[in-house]
Amino acid sequence: MLGKRKLGTQGLEVSSLGLGCMGMSWAYGEPSDPESLATLHRAIELGVDFFDTAEVYGPYTNEELLGRGLAGKREQVFLATKFGFKIEGGKMAGLNSRPEHVHEVVEASLRRLGTDHIDLLYQHRVDKEVPIEDVVGAMAELVRQGKVRFLGLSEAGEQTIRRAHRVHPITALQSEYSLWERDLETTIIPTLRELGIGLVPFSPLGRGFLTGTVKRAEEHPANDYRRNDPRLQGANYDANQRLADVVKEIGKDKGASASQVALAWLLQRGDDMVPIPGTKRRSYLEENVAAASLKLTPEETARLDSLRVTGPRYAEAQQAMIDR
After folding, report:
1. Which of 28, 57, 122, 237 is an active site residue?
2. What average pLDDT score do residues 96-116 get?
3. In sequence order, which ranges of 89-171 are alpha helices (DSSP H)?
4. Is residue 53 in a domain?
């Protein structure tokens, strides 16, 4: 069984690894609801109690899936979901964090999730058209109403985090962080630790690249996000493959998989972090959970620390949504 970690200083305690649920419904190939539901149930059996979703995953279908899968099990888990996009015609059409929209979205998320409260509510992306003070003010109203327990931000920059935290305590920041993406280390992680905010790293396996199994961008199907990933294209792919080879080599020496090495590295960065590797298959879930018991030596850790990824993280339009 997984151990527990405290996310931030507001009293939220969850399993040391969570489960990112996006790929069960969206972005990575064809969904399989029966296997995804079985994976949710197996996660609970293994001690995973922190489940991450968002209204935009689908859109909407991922929240609906969790609502079905966690029926009768709600008290055993902590649910995190996110708002912040304008959704029109079943597609993202920009950002929207207007206070009235926040309330509308949360009511809809509660219905889809089949619950009367959300444990952790994030703003999915910072909306520069709406002052963060107004956004967090609306989120705080939901806390007072008992519809939300804890507040979070996703991909927010240092100043946004500080301004938000002055309005209402922020429990967690969700941002990409892994051997594949180290941008948080200079200013964001020190800011979080100063303020007592936990970190929830998403894509801790580099969208699968750190498992050593991801193909070049053009080899992925049209409905797979990775088809447009700059780090999987051309010379970037070749350079990054060398990074993945080092992770795999360390795993081979330890009798572990590359993904377990990548997760172990992240878990050892601090007990204020709860990674949420995503999967829709029980076999990968079980492999990921086993990473919690893997210990890296100082020499192995130093070797991994020295690795650097090649290429931009996102295409230009997506990168513009990151508050850095």
Report:
1. 57
2. 98
3. 99-113, 132-144, 158-167
4. yes
Dihedral sign for Cα atoms in the order 252, 256, 258, 264: negative
Question: 59 is written with which tokens?
Answer: 């859109």
At 131-171, the pLDDT tens digits run: 999 999 999 999 999 999 999 999 999 999 999 999 999 99
Whether residue 131 is contained in a domain is answered as yes
Domain count along the chain: 1
- Say if CB 119 and CB 79 are below 8 A apart: yes
Q: How far apart are alpha carbons 263 and 284 in whole angstroms?
A: 13
pTM of the model: 0.95
Q: What does the block give as tokens for 17?
A: 């690894």
CB count within 10 Å of CB 193 equals 13
Q: Is residue 214 part of a domain?
A: no
* Average pLDDT over every residue of 97-102: 98
**Helix residue ranges, H only, the chain:** 33-45, 61-69, 99-113, 132-144, 158-167, 188-195, 234-254, 258-267, 282-290, 298-305, 316-319
**57 given a catalytic annotation:** yes
Q: Which domain holds residue 75?
A: 4-206+270-293
CATH number of the domain at 83, please: 3.20.20.100
Average pLDDT of the chain to the nearest whole number: 95
CB atoms within 10 A of CB 165: 21
- β-strands 148-154, 118-123 pairing: parallel
Least confident of 113-117, 235-239, 294-298, 314-318: 314-318
Answer yes or no: are the C-beta atoms of 36 and 64 closer than 8 Å: no
Residue with tokens 């939300």: 148
- CB of 12 within 8 A of CB of 198? yes
In a domain, 301, yes or no: no
Coil, helix or strand for 195?
Answer: helix
Q: Is the peptide bond before 31 cis (omega within 30 degrees of 0)?
A: no
Are the CB atoms for 170 and 8 separated by under 8 Å? yes
Record the tokens describing residue 235, joined without a space. 């010379």
Contact present, 42 and 282 (Cβ < 8 Å): yes
